[in-house]
Write a structure and sequence with these properties.
The protein is an alpha+beta fold and 177 residues long. It has two helices and eight strands. The chain has two domains: 32 residues; 132 residues, no CATH class. The longest helix is centred in the first third of the chain and has 29 residues. The relative contact order is 0.17.
């Protein structure tokens, strides 16, 4: 075998190794994609980047019991989740709207974020669905494109693991213009 043939052989082997590694990386990265549950953007910026952002809200507090309670960001976005299509991660958008509330500090409410849905939860005043994810709490408006301009939000402390609730703390979200 000539030097040129040996060089071509090693070039072919190196190309196969690189292609296999790239394919393996692509497959591994797709395995990590959450495709089952609805997702929540981590920030307003991420929501805008993914073209699912609808509107930003600002909090209004009139309950003196919520001292030190700090909300970082609040916004609405289309409900969405990841899907794999043609070996590509894409965002599938649904007709529902999510209200995302990023809580920076619980202040004097003495709530532990890890006990969400066990000892306390968040709900919209009309009892819409609630949930959590990506470090934020979200409320889902089923089948509605746009939630109201003003929302009443309740933080509810549970008396027991059943649906027995004790203390309610209320704050409001007002859509920014």
């Amino acid at each position: 075998m000539s030097k040129e043939q040996i060089k071509l052989k090693w070039l072919l082997i190196a190309s196969i190794i690189i292609f296999t590694a790239m394919l393996g990386f692509k497959v591994f990265s797709l395995i990590e994609v959450k495709t089952v549950n609805m997702q929540v953007s981590g920030s307003i910026e991420a929501s805008k980047k993914n073209k699912i952002f609808i509107a930003e809200y600002k909090p209004f507090f009139d309950d003196p019991a919520i001292k030190g309670f700090i909300i970082g960001e609040t916004w609405t976005e289309n409900a969405w989740k990841y899907e794999i299509k043609n070996w590509q991660k894409i965002i599938k958008i649904f007709p529902e709207t999510k209200i995302v509330i990023k809580i920076d500090d619980f202040g004097e409410l003495n709530l532990d974020e890890t006990e969400y849905l066990i000892k306390w939860d968040v709900e919209e005043g009309d009892g819409h669905h609630r949930g959590s994810g990506s470090g934020g709490f979200h409320l889902i408006y089923m089948g509605q494109s746009y939630p109201p301009d003003t929302l009443s939000i309740n933080i509810r402390k549970r008396l027991s693991f059943k649906d027995d609730y004790g203390t309610f703390y209320t704050f409001y979200l007002i859509k920014k213009r």
